[in-house]
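Hi C.,

You asked whether I'd gotten around to modeling the 499-residue construct. I have! Everything is below, sequence then structure, no commentary in between.
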Amino acid sequence: MARLKNSAVARRQDAAPGIMRLLTALAALTAMMLALYAAPAFARGAPESFADLAEKLSPAVVNISTSQTLKLGAPGAPVPGLPEGSPFNEFFEDFLQRQPGGQAPRKVQSLGSGFVIDPDGIIITNNHVIEQADEIKVNFSDGTTLAAEVLGRDPKTDVAVLRVEPDRPLPFVKMGDSTKARVGDWVVAIGNPFGLGGTVTAGIISAINRDINAGPYDDFIQTDASINRGNSGGPLFNLEGEVIGVNTAIISPSGGSIGIGFSVPSATAMPVIEQLKEYGETRRGWLGVRIQTVTDEIAESLGMDEAKGALVAEVTPGGPAEEAGIQAGDVIIDFDGKDVPSMRDLPRIVADTKIGREVETTVLRGGDKVTLEVKVGRLEEAEAKAEGAAKPDADQSNEPTLTLGLALGELNANSRRRFNLPDDVEGVLVTSVDPAGPAAEKGIRPGDVIVEVAQEKVKSPSDVVERVKAEQEKGRRSVLLLVSTAGDLRFIAVRIEEG
């Protein structure tokens, strides 16, 4: 009997490791299933409903109603029913001016959207919604209508801040962090499309960091949540109910939604909003350079391993960059400790830098890294000084020397007079361009002036030929030209022809 008991105990002891392994496997499987259940949206699928979110957020979303008084007969006044810039506008303006009542003023009304971010009455919308308005009214979902004043507006980011005077705290929404948003995240738009207030639409983030050439600080969130006319200025929410974008534009041949809408990210809008609230205007940093994209060809011509950074085409006289020693031809790769991956990144980085700060700026110059100290200026002051300044004219001249598909000539009194070239433009004149040549591919035109070749100044057509030949002998496939067009400088990498 004792032997039987001992053998049973032995069998149980032998089975114990197997049972433990089974229990461990079951525990791991359970943990994995729980993790999958609690995982991101792709494991759970679409939200069951947006109703709770819409109910909570809608009271803070408002309709913006504006009115503007126009004289139909006044030159430049838009003609109702015709798109701005239409060739028929001029005809109808002339017609209306000849009518007895042609000068009678007419009130034009428009609608947009906005949202409350402060219970004391601070409202965000688009600049283009309230621009040039004589009167602005804010309509709330409970039927209340309040007159609004403009605290500040910024055409560059299309953001405006309004204030109303409520008799009680207003429902409001919080701004979120758009930098955490990812392509594929669910988003909800609430607004006033076609005057239909309180409209809720949902979709996903289709893309981020979109540049649609709307302004110098383009960094839009693209969404397929339906956005139509009247949604402008309304909020784009994440599923936490935070505003991560201000709806501002659509791409549509018909004027209706085709699933391509754009929002100003909250990360872009918030610094602007804070400045407009505090100062009534923006206060952006300024470097004082004109920059362009570093293409693969330009990178190769400069001996760079990869195309990155912002190429300085021109330095503003007396600006922060000139005082710091930045030169045309430098490639800015780092500003204030922040990497500059491409040209379009630099304006945003500089704009967000505190005015008056001295920051380290790293540039590539002649293949070497150079670090300079730049004291950041204020963009708005620079723009005010430049406003009204006449732009220099430009265009052609003289006896041809041929290279790169270009006919080149000397700059002299006759050529300057003939092509209205200013005295301060120095270099070699482009007299004609071979349509099939490499320079034509890059948009060089007769009348342009070549200022530098391979970052060396040129004064005669022979200088250009010699510099191009020298670059070819180095094995370069393209040569970098600094070209003046109508007084504006730009770098162009032109392919060197074989033979």
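If it helps when you're writing up: Confidence is low (pLDDT under 50) at residues 1-13, 36-44, 73-91, 388-399.

Thanks,
B.
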